[in-house]
Specification:
By secondary structure, this protein is mainly α. It has one domain. It is built from 8 helices and no strands.
Length: about 160
């Protein structure tokens, strides 16, 4: 994998062989589609920051990396951590915190797969919660009704892959 900062691009040839084999859907390689792990601003940032961070750190420490990023971005997840029930989420929903957190943890999981060929167990657990949360109506409505179906399909595909690891 060529990790030269000025030459690296999001494409299967630059990914861990396991990621290239598993991530067969085109949207995983799209860095401008909000419904892909790396297409939203948070996801793109996490991908780049993780790529740089892992040069000097172990993938097993990725949760510390994630928590540091959230602290730097002033993302507070305490109100919704562990909540995936749509009714409960409705009561604590805050679009900035929920979407910043969920977009970031999903990107980190797929970033780990992309670069390391695996996903840390704790990140895997948090990612599955984030995906479930993102399928709640309050989160889907954030993106607009016209993309609900496509977003659900993609979230389900992401969940299927994370569960298979």
């Amino acid at each position: 994998m060529n990790e030269n900062e000025s030459e690296w691009e999001l494409e299967p040839s630059n990914a861990h062989p396991r990621a290239a084999e598993i991530l067969t859907d085109e949207f995983f390689w799209d860095c401008v589609d909000d419904n892909s792990p790396f297409g939203n601003d948070n996801g793109a940032d996490i991908l780049e920051f993780y790529r740089e961070w892992r040069e000097d750190n172990k993938p097993s420490d990725a949760l510390s990396f994630f928590n540091d990023i959230l602290d730097n971005w002033d993302v507070n997840s305490s109100a919704f951590e562990g909540i995936t029930d749509p009714n409960e989420l409705e009561n604590v929903y805050d679009d900035f915190n929920v979407h910043s957190y969920d977009d970031s943890i999903i990107a980190l999981a797929f970033g780990q797969l992309l670069f390391d060929g695996e996903v840390n167990d704790e990140i895997r657990k948090l990612t599955l919660e984030a995906i479930d949360r993102q399928m709640a109506p309050v989160c889907l409505n954030y993106y607009g009704e016209e993309i609900h179906d496509e977003r659900k399909i993609r979230l389900n595909r992401m969940k299927e892959i994370i569960l298979s690891l």
